[in-house]
Specification:
The protein is an alpha/beta fold and 208 residues long. Helix content is 35%, strand content 21%. An eight-stranded mixed beta sheet has the order 3-2-1-4-5-6-10-8, sandwiched between helices. Strands 7-9 form a two-stranded parallel sheet. Helix 1 packs across helix 5 and helix 3 runs parallel beside helix 4. It binds NADP nicotinamide-adenine-dinucleotide phosphate. NADP nicotinamide-adenine-dinucleotide phosphate binds next to helix 1 and strand 7.
């Protein structure tokens, strides 16, 4: 199994890279600073590249089975379009091929907006994440209308805590109460879906 991780050099993507290599998969990581990743492994290919560069993505996805996007940014600029544009690039690059796309978005996107809690909705989202989340909403819309297999992963509030393998995978958002989830456990879920994609065309929330 060959896995391509856009944004695999840090955060959830780096956790997933480690878990996938431990399982014996071939992993290609692309990010702007992938070559500085703190891992060396015979099954790991590191590509320095920007997800906004379609040609660079096209050059690297032809032979992969699964494409993952764990891309992230703190740049909340007005015209933020990193999530939607990189998603378009991934989909354009695999157009016509039968591949699985797994993308991380987050709690608070689409129908989970009012499930993220008062602090998130009244302060964090409007003052710090408005443009990022506007673009993540567009990203989910693009994925939901694409013509390949997909899974959207919506983590609750991320921590750098340990891998537990014990978390809730929520698809019915009535009465949803969200808390935290470690990046390692999000990576654990993504890996489980690579191996047995039971959440196809779904967008579960992950939370403890
Ligand atoms: N923080 C939370 O509580 C929370 C909750 C739910 C969901 N999320 C979402 O979860 C996702 C992962 O977050 P994280 O904190 O684990 O990740 P992160 O540490 O922010 O890492 C983001 C990754 O994206 C790469 N990246 C950024 N811009 C890129 C570009 N233009 N081209 C290629 N790669 C690029 C970065 O590498 P380079 O810099 O080398 O390019 C890095 O590998 C994000 O989408 C975030 O919004 C976060």
């Amino acid at each position: 199994m060959k896995i391509f991780i856009l944004g695999g050099s840090k955060g959830i993507g780096l956790c997933l890279t480690k878990l996938a290599l431990e399982k014996g998969y071939d992993v290609t990581v692309m990010s702007r600073s992938a070559e500085n990743m703190p891992i060396v492994h015979k099954n790991l290919t590191k590509i320095n590249g920007d997800g906004l560069d379609l040609q660079k993505i096209e050059e690297n996805v032809e032979k992969v089975d699964v494409l993952i996007s764990t891309i992230g940014t703190r740049n909340n600029k007005k015209n933020q379009n990193l999530f939607s544009e990189t998603t378009k690039n991934l989909l354009s690059a695999i157009n016509g091929y039968n591949k699985l796309l797994i993308s991380v978005t987050g709690i608070g996107v689409k129908e989970t907006l009012d499930k993220a809690g008062f602090l998130f909705n009244k302060i964090i989202l409007p003052f710090f994440l408005k443009n990022i989340y506007r673009d993540k909403n567009i990203q989910e819309e693009i994925i939901k209308h694409c013509n390949t297999q997909w899974i959207i992963v919506r983590p609750a509030f991320l921590t750098n805590g340990p891998l537990t393998g014990r978390y809730r995978i929520v698809t019915d958002f009535n009465n949803l109460k969200v808390g935290k989830i470690s990046r390692m456990d999000v990576a654990h879920f993504i890996l489980s879906q690579i191996e047995d994609p039971v959440y196809l065309k779904m967008a579960p929330v992950l939370t403890y």
